[in-house]
Amino acid sequence: MKKILVLGAGMVSRPLVRYLFDQPDYFVKMASRTVSKAEKIINSHERGEAETLNVSDEKQLEKLISESDVTVSFLPYTYHVKVAKLCIKHKKHLVTTSYVSDEMKKLDGQAKNARILLLNECGLDPGIDHMSAMRIIHDIETNGGKVISFRSTTGALPSHEANNNPFGYKFSWSPRGVLLASRNAAKWLENGKEVSIRGEKLFENYTIQDVPGAGSFENYPNRNSVPYKQIYGLKHATTVYRGTFRMTGWCETMRRIVALGWLGDKPVSGFSGKTYGDLTRKLIGAGSKDDLSQAVARFLGLKSYSAVIKRLEWLGLLSDEPLPDDRINPLDYLNVLTLKKMSLKPEERDMVVMHHEFVAEYPSKKEYITSTLVDYGIPNGDSSVSRTVALPAAIAVKMILEGKINITGVYIPVIPEIYNPILDELEEMDIIFHEKTEIL
Fold first, then answer.
1. 194 — alpha (psi -120 to 50), left (phi > 0) or beta?
2. What is the pLDDT of residues 77-94, one digit of tens each?
3. What is the pTM of this model?
4. Domain that holds residue 54
5. Are residues 27 and 143 in the same domain?
6. Model confidence pLDDT, tens digit, residues 30-41
7. DSSP code for 301
8. Cis peptide before 346 (omega within 30 of 0)
9. Active site (catalytic) residues
């Protein structure tokens, strides 16, 4: 019987575990800090087991990895290198859905010597975005063309019928990662020129984009896109851009939340207030007798009736809502509030939208190609995000155990022997891209 170790029992892990249970002769052990979460996912399956995980306990972690054939890590990315080194030591394969760090890349030689695969970025974004893009890029090149422009944007959103709050966003997991990403700087190539945006200016640089079959969204740049010219082999491309979709109104509002200082991850010096309104007042230096709504509007250069101010009021940043006692900085206070006010309910659907745009140049023609995925979650079941993150990793685990992936070292899924079988099986699960080609 093949043994799979799953580290972490977060919101996206369930579809992977249930997929593996559907395979014959697979045993899954889930190790999680909160063992009750793992027990709920295992659900007393005869080929499953849950265990409490102390990730700082090197001996426990090593024992778990040594007893498995493949390890899947859903731990925070900061632990992946630690896990990878133990996988190398015991010659066990590893699959993650996180970005490859520079530290992870340095393990390539050791992984090859151990004859194991450390497969990263095998989720949604990163993951399906790489696979679906590379399939088209390789197809264009096979047919004698070259990609001269590439744009790819993904959004994990509430479905339109569940989009019933003024932020146009809902969380099915901790919002902290989304909030932290709001501070990221961005860089991409546009018509041969490198464009750089500082983190605090991120939300000033968005466009409105229509996506057929999905709707109109704000599109803002996602981290550093420049390396993808090399990663995807786009040697002829003068435009290389990766972005994020949000419902309209998000960027303007988040820009103002950044400006207020609500994404700070350090305690505010000299603050002794008790409520969200108190902290907002402190952040902008407003007096105790000032009307807070008007003071915030003045600080941000807005009218007091503007939509942004109304959203901040709705969220509770100007309210008498007590600050949680177990948090100490604005970012974590905001994390608690957004999860309370903007959570996706079990009966609601989320929506994943991924949209690629290619300009392909051939000797006798030029084409504009789009490839679009619109996927919905299952009410009272798995979210679209959990399915599209977990299932590619699950399929990769099966391929490794069946000997269908024979490469070793540190990889992401940008080669046909990995992406073709995964994309083909995802299509059987109705996770399907629709392509359209126009002659330019």
1. beta
2. 899 999 999 999 999 999
3. 0.94
4. 2-119
5. no
6. 999 999 999 999
7. T
8. no
9. 125
